[in-house]
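JMJD8 protein
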Amino acid sequence: LAGAVPEEPGCTVERADASLTYSLFLQRFAFSRPVILGGVTDNSAFRALCTREKLLAAFGPFPVRLSTANTYSYRKVDVPFREYVEHLLKPQDPARLGSDTLYFFGDNNFTEWGPLFQHYVPPPFRIPGTSPAYSFGIAGSGSGVPFHWHGPGFSEVIFGRKRWFLYPPDKTPHFHPNETTLAWLQHTYPTLAPAQRPLECTLRPGEVLYFPDRWWHATLNLDTSVFISTFLG
C-alpha cells in the first residue's frame, strides 16, 4: 500500500545538512523551532540489522509492549514480536478509533533490545542538562500517533516514510484525542485555512527530525516503517 497515503504538497520544515554546527543548532533551533537534519549520521549498519528477517530472527519470541494510538495511550498490550509483525502489522483502518488501534513504539525492553541499539548512531547534538533515551518502533501504512507534546527529541526513519505535523506550544491544534492521525488528515485537515495548518514534512530513510520542548506533533507512516527516536529528558 505504499503511496496510498499522500505526502504533503510541500515541506514547510526548515532543513539543514552536515555543515550545521552545534553552536548554530543551539542558536537557531534547539529552543525555538524544528529542523530536518540530513547527512549528519550514517546508520546504514543499523538499517541492515532492521530488516524484517533480521528482526524476526533476533527478537521473534520476545514480548513487545503495544500502546493504543490515541493521544493518551493509556492501554498497553503485550504480544510476542513475531505475532505483532505477522498478524498485527497492517495498514490503518480509517474507521478504527485510536483506542482500538495498537502501535509498537517505545516501551522497549532495553535488556533485550539493547544489543541492537548499540549499533545506532544518534544525532550529534544535545540539549544542555538532558540525557538521551531511545524509543524504537515499527508500524504499518496509515498508522501514526495523534497530536501530543512532551520534551525535546530527535526522530529518524530507518525504513519507509513518515509524515510529520507540528504546531508551536502556543498554538493548540484542533483534534479529537481518540481520533487517529489518518482520520484527522481526512476529516479535519482539509477544513483548515492556510494560516491554521501545521508545519509539515515527510521524512525518508536517513533523515532526522528535531522537535523542541512542548511542540505539538502528530505522525503518519506513509509506508510500513521502521523508526527510532532519541528523547532528551
